[in-house]
Structure formats: structure tokens, C-alpha cells
Amino acid sequence: MMATITSDDLAENSPIYDRKSELKKFDESKVGVQGLIENGVTKVPHMFYHDQSNIHDFSVSESNSNLSIPTIDLTGIHDDPVLRDEVVRKVQNASEKWGFFQVTNHGIPTHVLDEMVKGICRFHQQDAKVRKEYYTRDFTKKVVYLSNFTLYQDPSADWRDTIGFFMAPHPPKVEELPAICRDIVIEYSKEITALGSSLYELLSEALGLNRPRLKEIGGAESFFHVCHYYPPCPEPELTIGTSKHTDASFITILLQDQIGGLQVLHDNQWIDVPPIHGALVVNIGDLLQLVSNDKFKSVEHRVLANHIGPRISVASLFRTQDHSPEYMEKVIGPIKELLSKEVPPIYRDISFKEFLAHRFANGIGVSALSPYKL
Hints:
The protein is 29% helix and 18% strand. The chain is α+β, with helices and mostly antiparallel strands. A hairpin with a 2-residue loop joins strand 8 and strand 9.
């Protein structure tokens, strides 16, 4: 029987309020934030309360309300050297100054993007008895449904549920994928594989390196989808959809629906990333900032909670999921071709094992790179 959690159960001044036990109760319900909505919650439970300074830390400047991340048209990158050179220049500029950009004419049909959004929505809105069968915190599984990856480490829970698919290089068996979104997840993954490969090559050239160089370091053939579902929030001023963070990836390709809420921290102010139908958002992750020796920037971003919903997004994080000792002990560091006497390394070499252990031990909002600075 599904556990029912009400806002009264989790009220701060309630005599029964105990954060650890309430987190556990919420987690063991296995139905996430959507389960709260289905059970009629009309107030945000206290476990989701965020420090107001975190929500309103850098207000969006009115004078820069029209400022937005670059949009790059990928038309012609495979067959026109002149157009490709222009795209490489734009990718370089966006990666250095913003750490974020949107791409259009990227080769993935719009109907595939739309159906992926619908498929993820269908999963999260199906009967609680069905979706809770996928609920787990065992990250060795290929399909993981849960609310808040670092629920017990973070100071506050985010108003968000997630289903994750660890698709490459070792995809789940077909029968492991939820039937309600199986076909589109497989199709979308094939499309993202091709786009990821193209972006790795463009980013290599944007660093002044040979086209295959970033692929040689690793991660281009390996990714997982983090498919977020943000239910409508009764009190969005008290909580947040996703706390500010950087991505523990080389690159992330994001598909978002038309509701909005994604913001990027740029020049100490939050800038909206407006949805463009048919476009995809690309951002630099911590691992690419490290190997590029800070030439490319992995910047903080967040998602606001909203009365309107649900909001759907699919973030495809390119970072290996090979947990073999051989891979986890692999060492990466600033790319040697980018270093000189005038440009010394900013970071020491680290293993993937060390990087990921620090990331998951400290929660979503803690800097993933500062411990490795020389």
C-alpha cells in the first residue's frame, strides 16, 4: 500500500517532524513528488524548503532581461568547410564566455524530440503501482527511477522526480526499459549518439586540437539520460526545481519542453534559457573544463519551481558509465597540447574514481573541481 505523506506530517513545527525520518518516509513511498501531488498535497513539505538566499541570490537584471545564451545553427557542418569553420568559431566563443549554447538544425527530427518529451511524461504520470516498481537507489542498475539523486546528502530536497537510463556503452536489455516509453528512448538514444559525436569534434576544433582528440580522452561513446519531471508546485517561492549546480560530465545535451525555468549564472546574474521548439541546449561539464584547463567553462545553472506543470526535460550526460576497475582508475588532466610555460596546468591529474566519489559524497551544489586545483 502506498504511504501517504501530507504537508502536516512534514511541517517544521510539528511535534513529529524529524528530517531524517521524513526523508526516509518520502523515499520509501517510492512515488516521488508526483506521489505527493496525487495524494492532494497543497503546501510544500518542509523537507523541500530552500534557503531563500539560494533562490534569490542573484536576481535577473531588468536591463539584461533580453540577454540569452548563444544559438548556433549547425547547418552544413558535415559538407561545407566554410560553414564549419564559422560554427567552430561560434562554439569556441560560447564555450569560453557562457559554457552554454543552443543548437538548431542539429539533425534530430522535431517529432522525435516531441515524442521523447511525451514518453517521459507518460512514464511519470502512469499508475503509481507501475512506476514504483522502477524506484531504486542502486546505481548499478541500467534504469533508475527516484526523486533526488543525493536526497540524503543535500540540505533541501528539490521539487523533482527523475527516471535515468544508462544507455551507452552497455545499454539495458530491451525488456528492462519501461514499455510506456521504450521505443522512443531507444530511438532518441541513437540520435543523441550521432549528435554527441559531432559536438565532440566541433569542441576539439574549437580548442585548436585535431578533430578526434576529445574522443580519445573518453566519454564520447558513453552517456546516460536523466529525464526530469517537475510537477506543478503549490508554493514555488519556497523551493526549487533543481538546485544550482554544474554537471559532472564532459558535455550535456538538454531537451526541454516549452514551459521554461532553466537559468544559467552569467556575470553574477541568472539568465533565463528560453525554450526554442526543435532546438537543444548544450553545456560544458566539469570534466571538459578540467581537460581544457579552464579554457571552456562549466557554469552553474538551476531550474525554478513553477505553479505551471509538469515541466519535462531530458539531459543526456556524456561521461562513461563503465565501472570496471580498469576504467575507474584511468587518469585525466589538462590536455598537454594546451599547456606551455606561459599556460601552466591549473589542475592536477585525477582518476574518474576520485572525481565521482567526491561528487556523490558532497551533493549536488558543491564545486566538483576546486579540490583538484594546483
